[in-house]
Structures are given as C-alpha cells and as structure tokens.
Design goal:
The complex is a heterodimer of chains A (568) and B (727).
Chain A: E1 59-64, H1 73-82, E2 92-100, E3 103-111, H2 120-124, E4 130-132, E5 139-141, H3 151-155, E6 162-164, E7 169-171, H4 177-181, H5 187-191, E8 197-201, E9 229-232, E10 240-243, E11 249-253, E12 259-263, H6 283-304, H7 310-329, H8 348-369, H9 376-396, H10 408-428, H11 434-459, H12 465-473, H13 477-500, H14 505-528, H15 544-553
Parallel strand pairs in A: 1-9
Antiparallel strand pairs in A: 1-8, 2-3, 2-10, 4-5, 6-7, 10-11, 11-12
Helix pairs in contact in A: 6-7, 6-9, 6-10, 6-14, 7-8, 8-9, 9-10, 10-11, 10-14, 11-12, 11-13, 13-14
Chain B: E1 18-25, E2 34-40, E3 45-50, H1 63-66, E4 82-83, E5 92-93, H2 96-114, E6 119-123, H3 129-143, E7 148-150, H4 157-167, E8 185-188, H5 192-195, H6 197-209, E9 214-217, H7 223-227, E10 230-232, H8 239-252, H9 258-264, E11 265-266, H10 268-275, H11 280-287, H12 291-304, E12 308-311, H13 313-316, H14 321-334, E13 345-347, H15 354-360, H16 375-385, H17 400-408, E14 414-418, H18 422-425, H19 429-437, E15 441-446, E16 459-462, E17 471-474, E18 479-483, H20 496-504, H21 519-530, H22 544-550, E19 553-554, E20 581-582, E21 601-606, H23 622-625, E22 632-635, H24 637-643, E23 650-654, E24 659-666, E25 674-678, E26 705-710, H25 714-723
Parallel strand pairs in B: 6-7, 6-14, 8-9, 8-12, 9-10, 11-20, 12-13, 14-15, 15-16, 21-25, 22-24
Antiparallel strand pairs in B: 1-2, 2-3, 4-5, 4-16, 17-18, 18-19, 21-26, 22-25, 23-24, 23-26
Helix pairs in contact in B: 3-15, 3-20, 3-21, 4-14, 8-11, 8-12, 8-14, 11-12, 17-19
Classes of the chains: A alpha+beta (568), B alpha/beta (727).
Chain lengths: 568, 727
C-alpha cells in the first residue's frame, strides 16, 4: 500500500555497503549460511522475498543520545504505521535529567524492541508467540498466538512488549520488516527529527557518527539479553541522573564510569500501611501461587506423616484446581489457556504449568486408583510437586526483576508450602503429630531468614531492588511489620502448642488463619513491590504514578489521555 | 540462536488500505511542511506522509503532522449551523440560509443602532489565504466595520510591526536555506525543537554538514538551549537591554559594517547615542547575563559574517516586543546581515497561515500589504473591488486586544469570531469571560463546536477544516503552498470561504462586486491585485499547478519569472520611500509585573510539541494528547522544597487576576524564581496572565507576570482539574 521507496528521501533508505563478521558479543552477524537468502516473511500472506541484499544480517537501531530532542516524532510515526491506540506504543521516549539551573541537562531516550541476540521474551513466552527470524534478526511476536499472560513483559528489561489490557494480548515492535524488505529504514528512524535514531546492519557506524557503545545511562545491563542497539553519547554527563517518572530509581556513575541504578527516595519516607495498594492486577497469581504451594506442602507432609487419605487427595486436587483456574483468570485470553504448554523447550512458565497439571493429575489419579488399591500415582505426585516448586521459582528469578532475582524467592515459596500446607493438615488430618508443628515452625523460620538476607541485599543494592526495598520500608512499612509479627505469633503458638500438648481444632483454626493472613500479605507485597529494570519514562507517558492517578481520578476514561482504563 | 521458526503464521502488519495520496500543506504551524493525505477506498483520510521532494521538510513531519489525518472525524466537530437567542438558552439546529440570514440581520441591526464600528470581527491565522482575502472584501467592502483584526495580534503582531518600523514593510527577509550559509545563529525566545521541529531539523542538517555556533537566549533551559553552544538564561522581559548591549559592544569594537550602514540605513546617530547607555556592565544588572558573555556573543556575532537571528514568542510576547524585533533588525542592519545568504532577521512565525492573514486579510489595512492610511491604496482597492474608496476607513481600527476592552466599555455590541478561541488564548481570561457575556450578538465560526467561546455565542457556524477545502498557506519563509480539497466535508460543515461569500450576498451592494466561486478563481483575482510598481508581495507568476508541482513558491514571483525569491532586500533597497532601512533608538522601559514578596514567582508560558494552540485539534488526537493530557507546571525543585510542594502533586497558583490548578513537574530546567506552564489548556495559565500590551503591535506580554503558590487538597484539585477538561 503505502510502501513506495521511490517516494522516500535518501535518509530513509538503508545504506549498508559492508558489514562486520561478528558482533560485540561475539556472535556472527550473518544469520544464515553463505548464499542462503532466507525465506519469505509472508508479510500479510504474501510469498514475496524482499530485495534487500542484507536481509540475512542482524540489523540494529543506532541511537545518538546527544541528539534526541524528545519530540515524539518516532513514537508518532510508529503508532501511525502500526495503527496503535493511544494507550499503546511500540516505541517510547523517556528522559533522565540532572544538574542545577542553568547547568541543566536532559537526556532523552527513545527505545523500542532491541531484537536481542538472546531474546528472553521468546524464551519466556509459554505459547511460542515469538520468533527470531534469520531475516534481519527480527524478533517478531504474533498476537494471534499470544494468550495475554504478560510474562514476556516481565522478562524483557526494556519494556518492549506491550500488554494491551483492553485487548488482552501483547503486541510489539516488528522492526518494520515490510519497509526493510524494500530497502527502507523503519518508520521511527525515517521520522527522526533530531537525527538521533538510525538503523542498519549491527555494528555499522552510521554516517558522521563515531561510537557503537552497547550502554548508556538508564539502559539496563546488555548482558541480560544481548540487545541489538548501539549508542553514541559523547557529551559529558554529570555524576548522577534522575528520573521524572514515579520509579524510585536514579543512575549514579560508578568507579568503572558506568551508570548504575540506585535508590532515589522521592518522598519523605513516611511509614504507612496502604492496605488498598496491596490489591493489584496480579491478585489471581497471589491466589494461584499460594494455593499451589499450599497443595504441595499439604500433600507432601501428608505423605511424609502417613496421612494420605482420600480427603487429603481430594483437598489437594481442589486446591490445585482452584489455583489453575485463578492462573487462567490472569490471562488476557483465558480460553486460549491450553497454549500454555507450547514452549516446554524454553519457557519455565510452560514447564511450571505442565508440572502443575501433572501434580494435580497424579493426585487425582491416585484418588481414583487408590480405590482399587493402586497407590503408585501418589508417589509420582511427589516429584511433580518438587518440579512445580522448582519451575515456579525459576519463573520469578529473572534479571529484569531484581527484587525477585534472589534466593529469597525460594525461601518464600518453599516456606509458604510448609506453613500453609502444615496448617491445613492440622485442620484436616491428625493435629497431634509434632512433626507437622515442626514443619510449620521450619516454614516460618525459613521465610524469615530469607527476608533478613533479602533486605540486607536490597538495601545496599545497585539495582531497582533498592527501590523495592525502600517501598517495603515506607509505603508498606507497617503492613510488612504486621506480617512479620503474625509469623512470629504463628511460630510461638506452634511451639507452645507442641510443648504443652494443647492439640485441638481451635488451635489449628487460629494457626491457619494467622498463617494465611500473613502469607497473603507477603505474597501481595511480593508482586506489588517489584520495580522492573524498565527504561525511564516521561512525566505523563510511561509514568506508572500518573497512570495510577489517571485511573483513580477518572482522567483515564477519556481514551485520548492514553492510559488504559483497566490495568489488565 | 534462532528460535521458534516452525509452522508460523504469516506476519501481520497494519494496513490502512490507502488507495490514493492527496497533496496538502500541513495545517498546524507556519513551517509549511508539504505532505500527502492517504485516503482509503471509501475516500476517508487514514494517514499522512511527508513529501520527500518538498524543499521545506524533505519528507519529514513532526508529531502533529504525522497524526493530522485524525483531526477530521474528531470529537467535537460541528455538524450543523445553530442559533439561540440567549447565551444561556438552548441551541436549535438550523439550515445555512436561516443561519446566515440571522447573522446578517443581527449585525446590520446592531450597526444601524450603534454605528458601523459597533460590530467587530476577530479572525485567525488558520484558514486559507483565499478565504482571508474574501473575508477582507466582505468586512472592508460590505460590513464596513473598522474593528477587524486577527489572532495574529497574539503571536506575530510585534514581528509585523517591527518589520514595518525597520524596513518599511512586513515580510520576513530570510529563509530556511540561510542555515546552510550562516556562521552564527542567534535564537531569541525561540525553542525550535518544541515549536518548529522541522526547522530545527533543517538547522541540524546544516550542522551535520558544517559546524557553526548557536547562541540561544531563553529564560529556561529548553532543548534548544541545551543543544546550543552558548545559552544566555535571560531575566524575563529584558531582551531589549541585551540586544542594545550587543550593539554597544559591536560599535565599541568597530565590528559594524560602515559601508552598509551608510548606504542602506537612516538614523544611525540617534541609534548610536541610545545604545551608548547600554554598556555591558550596566546591562548585565538588568538582563541577568554577565558582561563577559555579552561581549563574547557580541564579538561572535559581529565577526561571523554572515550571522543570522531568529526569534519567536520570547521576543514578540512582551511589553516591548516590537522594540525587541527592531533591536534585532538594528543588530543585523549594523552588521550588514540583511538579504544575504546566512545573514538575516528571520521571524519564525506561528500559525500555518499567519503570513496569509498578514498579507491578504485586510485586517490591519488593505490586501497585499496596502495601508488604509494611504489614499492611493484605498483608491486602488476600491476600484478593484468596485467599492467606493470613501467607504474605507482612513486609518486602522482596533486590534484584537483592544476590541475586548471596547466590548467591556460598551462601544462594541456584536462580535464575529472566526477560527480562534480567545476564551483560552487571550490573557486574563476572567476578564474575557465577563466581556463576552456582555455581547448582544456573538457569532462563532469554527470547525469544532466545543471550542470554549461557543458558550458565549448566539450563532454557531460549522466550518470545514484544512483539506476539506482548497487553498493556499504562506509559511515563515514566504513560501505559498497549496492544500487540495481531498477529504469529504464533515457533516453539514462549509468551507470558511463559502460562508464569507454567501454571507456577503446578504448585503445589497454585493451584486456590484465579484465573489469568485472557486479558490483558484479567487487566487487569480489576488494575483491581479498583487501586481504593480515596487510591489514586493507579488504572486502573479504563480498558479495552483505550479505551486503543487514545485511544492511551494516563495514570493515575490512576478509574472514571467520562472521561480520564486529566496530572500528580500538583497539589493539593500527597503520599502520606505527613500529605499533606506531605519536604525531605531530603542530605550528600555521597565513596566512588567515583577515578582514580589506576595507573588514571588515569574510566570512564564510556552508551547509543547505535541499540542497546537488551544488543543481544539491535538486534544482529540490521542497520540498527541497523551504526552501532556492535563495541565502541568515546571517548577524548580529547590523552590519546591522551600514551599513544601511535591513532584506530581497539584498546586493552586494565584495571581492578581485569578487562580489556576496545575500538576507540578519538578525540574531544574527553570530557575528558582520562575514557573513555566504550557499555554494550551483551557482555564489554566491565562486565568493568571496580565498581558500588558506592546504600544506598537498591541500584542500582550503573556510571558511576564507574577504568581504565588497555594496548597490545595489533592483529591479536590484532581476533581477540579478533570471537570475543566472537556477534551
């Protein structure tokens, strides 16, 4: 339709005469064997193969940060080309700033998908919606496959995949491969007014540019995904650069001259409760993880203490069932839940889902088969339970979410399995077995030890985890303390119960309510507190603080405000 | 390393189904970018693209141009003409004949009762040149009120008045190509990256080829200030002092171009005597720029040869805006930097057709830069239009900013507002609201019926917008460029030109006059009027087809010439009778409302790139509006700490006029004693502004007044803020 290379100016034409052999990460730039020109990308069903002579080479954006004026032309051109609603954008411009008037500097950062060598989005996606094509090295996502779990938006350090809460699916930058096929640079690059954005075969230095750095301040560690973007930034920058969005993060120059994220409190640091803020779009996941972990602990302890009754198996099945139901509720397109197992080869999320089904399934089979005296499935369920826990932890320990990327995630999940599982067993099974109380205490202690070390790491961390920690000790300070006190109470009550032998249902009831309250608070905070390694936002656009404000006050009801009314 | 490539669906890319592209000139600002509107199979506009062969933008468009296809079928477009008897009454939709009959009879009735000048017409810089010309013919030739002005009084009037005072005529002498040749670019109160992104790109392109120094004079650290080699963070409202002092150093160091001054200027002695009072030491105390920097910049400018200056609202919107413009002209005259490649005084204009209204609307005089005061001009135009020259007033009437006080005092009873929104754009909006309530009859003619003035109107006329009609815009560098009618008109809207010529039919004398049907017919008529001895504004060599094929032509282009003219005054001959330009003595008078203990902050206002004017268009284009959907204020974090104000909270600002609620954005971009608010929002910055008037241009000083901060309950402020945003 609108692609007419004749119509476009020289600056919009790709001009890579030569290219290097390997990129700065040591990987080959030509992605297919010599002579192989690749396949048709089947753009909108067409079988044509583009005329671009470099189509099998890895392409990349080049961004001259010195030049970006934050004029939004790239974003507008992208939205216009991809016909995007205002609340979405495949490319966003944010900024960091520094200095004291008039010695003031603003660095604008325009960022889209970096079509990484190691696309964590592709690896994380359970539905296999992503493809890294040997043509241009483009990482392209297919919204028709996606079921809207949003996991790719968690693992991507650059906030490139866009979860559309109105449509229940993810979409992202497609590198304008249709333009590349006819020798044109992407729409955003062609539209750049500050001469900041450029595009070509990776490692090629654009005309009148000198650098191909892999890092600039505000940009997450390139080692996470080996992104295909190169930077030029020659103007001297001050020691510290701050963000205007609500993220409590700024960037400080370290000894190695690299900028690292550190805490920027941005508030007086009042210690508060903020119960309401615990409610988030991840609520279904709070329920899913807690119930699944409860089922794991409950079932395993029951087996360990020889209490594997029909009731125990039934309750386990019900817990897993409700958990699974809640996890699909989290999806943008729940009816596509069956696609969750499509990427067992790479995705921990797929593996977690399969393990959960196998666990629930084998307990269910056990329930059926035990009626005819076959108990094998009960034992099969145990390794499945371990696998669920393992992959669940792996799902959350990801570099783009530094707050989760710590062994405390294991102690939290494992500890929760013990605490919730043991309480439930006290209620349903034999409440006189001290081992169960000991498991309960062990669970609490594990969690507390995890919390101590987690806090110690986060406090002094050069990562977004420091911001999460600050939030934990201010916005949710009282809630956090309340949770720890509750856990301590659990610990003491359990110990007292065992010591004095006060075994009865009432104690079990008290314990279970205390444990679930504490765990529910803890798990909600786990989701709410995380600060991802995203690119800096602007004052309104890509500012989580403003988005929340717009939703609360009703500004978001006007679609032209560009904030989705619901948050998934 | 390549993953997930088996059995995949075809890649889906958005396809807007464009079947044809239609030529247009961007309808937002005065840069004058050539673009094409993409129409789909059902002829609906779905997208735009820049024209690569266009000399102005070479294929580039800014955010507003890129999203411009969305302005047609937007929220708030006017569907039908409407009438009502009282401004608190209910609107009733009507047909065009009834509406125009009502408008004509009401205007005539007011004129019969209170005199010809008791109705006023406030026009715009938004409609096409042919339409301006028709409106001028209607107002000057039939309605006969002298109180007729355009909203250009709010933006370009000082540049116009300054050009007239220095060179004897309006008309920016330079062009964008000058960036390629200049050895120094001095930008005063002009933030190109935000206000004129494509001109900024032209500067950037020139810089990529050849480095030349940029000096930026701006009280804020704008993006342009940051990109400049030298930033002079000036005290608001004191640019005249700086400019006089620059001239002082140039004269002191003998860097002036004596030959040029002697050959092409008058008034050097008086000028030099006045400048003598602005030595850098004294000037530094007033303008806040240290004496070393003044000397450095003056020497740089004096030695650059050629050097050029550009300016925008930072100069124009000031109590001595015209003096500021003249001082820039002085600087360029004494250094011989007029009419040379890379040496010029280039006012960067505001609206898409601010130039068109200056040239042809007869607001400030008669069409084609003719003056009411000149009997020969009255005679010429009268004969050409078949109007008795005695019907024309012999001097210019009230400016827009004087029309409102005249309504306030009861001299004016009827008002016709064409494609402008004074309720948001005029300073001191509390006063404007009271003024509009006093009108006996008010007509609002606009493409968007939700424009805030409609609340005070008795008649609303829905106009067609931009490419729904045909005609020309003139851009900052005098380039006349064309927009083809390519988009079906929205609902029952009509082109402004159609409204003018059909309203004209309600005056008996119109039968003796000619109102051509087509835009091209009007253009051909204007060409005849543009000819004549020593007429600078000559478009007689242009045709619609030639304009489209060359993507715009710079006037003058007399008949028989193959192309337009890049620069004016290349021969050093100016439009005064003796052909010489005037060097003017420009004493600085301090009359701004400055910060005090009670009102400790300067209030500065300006533009953001994603919005245009009062947001009637960009407020409805989500992909523009989302970047600043609600009013905000830049404030210095150190001052905020002192005042107990937090980032992203709401504050209430109070001035001696009124108050406004804004969200706070803390940034060191602004000094400790200043706050900055984008002017685009209704019920916001202009509730606070004073807008003292420039004595020559009657342009308001939007950017200089004093405010204080008051705390406000956050949830209440949020509610208030939301209620004030219809779009």
């Amino acid at each position: 339709m609108s692609l007419d290379p004749q119509h476009e100016a020289t600056y919009a034409q790709l001009a890579d005469a030569n290219s290097q052999i390997t990129n700065q990460y040591g990987s080959p730039i030509t992605l297919l064997p010599e002579g192989d020109q690749g396949r048709s990308l089947q753009i909108n069903g067409s079988n044509e193969i583009g005329t671009n002579p470099n189509r099998t080479k890895q392409h990349a954006f080049h961004f001259t940060a010195d030049n970006c004026i934050g004029c939004h032309a790239c974003e507008a051109a992208c939205s216009e080309k991809n016909d995007l609603a205002p609340h979405l954008s495949f490319r966003s411009v944010g900024y960091i700033e520094s200095g004291t008037f008039p010695d003031y500097q603003r660095v604008n950062l325009s960022m889209a998908c970096n079509h990484c060598d190691d696309p964590v989005c592709l690896k994380g996606c359970p539905t296999r919606a992503y493809t890294k094509h040997p043509e241009y090295g483009a990482v392209i996502q297919d919204p028709d496959i996606c079921f809207g779990c949003g996991y790719c938006t968690w693992v991507c350090p650059y906030n490139a995949p866009q979860l559309d809460p109105m449509n229940g699916q993810v979409e992202k930058c497609n590198m304008c491969v249709d333009r590349l096929e006819v020798g044109l640079k992407p729409a955003c690059v062609s539209a750049c007014v500050g001469n900041a954005l450029d595009f070509g075969v990776v490692e090629n230095v654009p005309a009148s540019r000198e650098q191909t750095e892999t890092q600039i301040p505000g940009f997450p560690d390139p080692e996470i995904t080996k992104p295909n973007i190169r930077f030029q930034q020659t103007k001297a920058l001050p020691l510290e650069l701050t963000r205007t969005d609500s993220a409590r993060v700024k960037y400080k120059k370290g000894a190695d001259d690299q900028y690292q994220p550190t805490l920027d409190p941005k508030s007086s640091g009042k210690r508060e409760w903020n119960w309401k803020k615990l409610i988030s779009r991840e609520n279904p996941l709070v329920v899913f993880t807690l119930l699944t972990q409860c089922a794991i602990g409950f079932f395993t302890l029951a087996v360990a203490t020889n209490q594997l009754t029909d009731a125990v198996a039934l309750v386990t099945c019900v817990l897993v069932g409700i958990g699974m139901l809640m996890s699909t509720k989290h999806l943008g397109k729940p009816l596509r839940f069956y696609r969750g197992f499509n990427n067992l080869r790479h995705s921990n999320l797929s593996r977690e889902a399969l393990a959960t089904v196998l666990f629930g399934g084998s307990v269910g089979l056990h329930l059926l088969c035990s009626q005819i005296g076959l108990y094998t499935f009960g034992y099969v369920a145990i390794p499945c339970a371990v696998a669920v826990l393992y992959f669940m932890i792996r799902c959350y320990t990801i570099p783009a979410r530094p707050f989760w990327n710590h062994w405390q995630t294991s102690t939290a999940f494992g500890g929760a399995a013990l605490t919730t599982g043991s309480c439930l067993l006290l209620l349903i099974g034999n409440n006189t077995d001290p081992i169960i109380y000991i498991a309960l205490i062990l669970g609490v202690v594990t969690e507390l030890i995890g919390l101590v070390f987690h806090a110690r790491r986060n406090r002094s961390s050069n990562s977004e985890a420091a911001a999460s920690h600050y939030e934990q000790s201010t916005t949710f300070a009282k809630t956090h303390v309340c949770r720890i006190v509750l856990m301590a109470c659990v610990c003491i009550s359990a110990a007292v119960t065992v010591l004095f032998g006060w075994f009865n249902v009432w104690i079990a009831l008290i314990l279970i309510s205390l444990v679930f309250t504490a765990e529910f608070i803890g798990r909600s905070m786990f989701y709410v507190l995380v600060t991802p390694t995203t690119m800096p936002g602007a004052f309104f656009w890509r500012n989580k603080g403003f988005e929340e404000h717009a939703r609360e006050t009703g500004l978001a009801d006007n679609p032209n405000v560009g904030v989705a009314r619901i948050s998934h | 390393m390549l993953f997930g490539r088996r059995r995949k669906n075809p890649i889906k890319m958005a396809d807007k189904g464009v079947t044809e592209w239609k030529y247009a000139t961007c309808g937002y600002c005065s840069v004058g970018c050539s673009l094409e509107i993409g129409l789909n199979e059902s002829k609906q506009p779905v997208t735009t693209r820049g024209v690569a062969t266009a000399p102005v933008n070479q294929g580039k468009l800014c955010i507003k141009g890129l999203t411009e296809a969305q302005i047609f079928d937007a929220v708030g477009r006017g569907r039908e003409p409407k009438l009502r008897d009282r401004i608190y009454g209910v609107w009733r939709e009507t047909d065009w004949d009834t509406a125009l009959d009502d408008v004509a009879s009401k205007l005539k009735a007011i004129q019969d009762k209170h005199g010809r000048d008791s109705v006023a017409v406030i026009s715009t810089g938004q409609i096409m040149t042919e339409e301006f010309y028709t409106l001028g013919k209607l107002v000057r030739g039939l309605i006969g009120t002298n109180n007729y002005d355009g909203n250009t009084t709010l933006c370009m009037a000082s540049a116009v008045a300054g050009y007239k005072r220095s060179f004897g005529s309006d008309g920016p002498p330079g062009c964008y190509d000058d960036f390629q040749h200049t050895n120094c670019l001095l930008a005063l109160g002009s933030n190109l990256p935000e206000q004129h992104p494509i001109i900024y790109w032209r500067v950037k392109e020139a810089l990529e080829k050849r480095k030349f120094p940029i000096v930026c004079v701006d009280p804020r650290v704008t993006m342009f200030a940051q990109m400049a080699d030298i930033h002079l963070p000036i005290t608001p409202g004191t640019d005249l002092v700086l400019l006089n002092s620059l001239a002082y150093v140039i004269l002191e160091d003998g860097l002036e171009d004596r030959t040029y001054i002697d050959a092409h200027t008058n008034g050097f002695a008086e000028f030099a005597a006045e400048v003598e009072r602005y030595d850098p030491v004294s000037a530094a105390k007033i303008c806040g720029i240290d004496e070393d920097s003044i000397r450095t910049v003056a020497r740089l400018y004096g030695q650059a040869k050629p050097a050029m200056s550009i300016w925008t609202m930072g100069i124009n919107q000031s109590t001595h805006g015209t003096d500021g413009v003249c001082a820039i002209n002085n600087l360029n005259l004494i250094t011989g930097n007029i009419g040379k490649p890379g040496g010029t005084s280039l006012s960067i204009t505001g609206q898409c057709n601010a130039m068109g209204t200056r040239e042809w609307s007869a607001c400030s005089g008669l069409p084609g830069y003719r003056q009411l005061e000149n009997p020969k001009h009255r005679e010429e135009v009268g004969r050409f239009w078949n109007v008795d020259p005695a019907f024309f007033p012999t001097e210019r009437g009230l400016f827009q900013t004087d029309i409102f006080p005249a309504i306030e005092t009861g001299q004016i009873k009827g008002l016709w507002i064409v494609a402008t929104n004074p309720m948001t754009s005029m300073p001191n909006s509390p006063r404007i609201r009271k003024t509009l309530e006093k009108l006996e009859y008010c007509i609002v003619q606009d493409a968007y019926e939700d424009v805030e003035c409609t609340k005070f109107a008795h008649a609303y006329l829905p106009a067609a917008v931009w490419a729904e009609k045909e005609g020309c815009f003139t851009n900052t560098e005098r380039r006349v460029n064309l927009t083809r009618a390519s988009v079906p008109r929205f609902a029952n809207s009509r082109p402004d030109g159609w409204i003018f010529s059909n309203l004209a039919k309600r005056w008996e004398h119109s039968t003796q006059m000619n109102f051509p049907e087509s835009s091209e017919g009007i253009f051909e008529e204007m060409k005849l009027l543009s000819q004549g001895e020593k007429r600078m504004l000559d478009i007689s060599g242009m045709t619609y087809d030639k304009i489209e094929s060359t993507r715009g032509i710079q006037w003058p282009m007399p008949e028989g010439r193959a192309s337009g003219t890049a620069r004016l005054y290349t021969d050093g001959v100016f439009q005064f009778l003796d052909g010489k330009a005037k060097l003017l003595a420009l004493p600085y008078v301090e009359n701004n409302e400055r910060p005090t203990n009670d009102f400790p902050f300067w209030l500065n206002s300006g533009r953001v790139v994603e919005h245009f004017h009062t947001r009637t268009k960009t407020g409805k284009v989500g992909n523009c509006n989302k970047f600043s959907p609600t009013p905000y204020m830049e404030m210095n974090p150190d001052a905020a700490k002192e005042q107990g104000v937090e980032h992203m909270s709401y504050v209430r600002l109070v001035s001696k006029r009124g108050d406004a609620v804004v969200m706070v954005q803390l940034t060191q971009r602004v000094p400790r004693d200043m706050v900055f608010i984008p002017f685009h929002f209704h019920e916001c910055v202009n509730r606070l502004t004073l807008g003292l008037l420039d004595p020559y241009s009657r342009q308001p000083a939007f950017k200089q007044c004093a405010v204080r901060l008051e705390p406000i309950a956050q949830d209440e402020a949020a509610k208030w803020n939301q209620q004030l945003r219809d779009f």
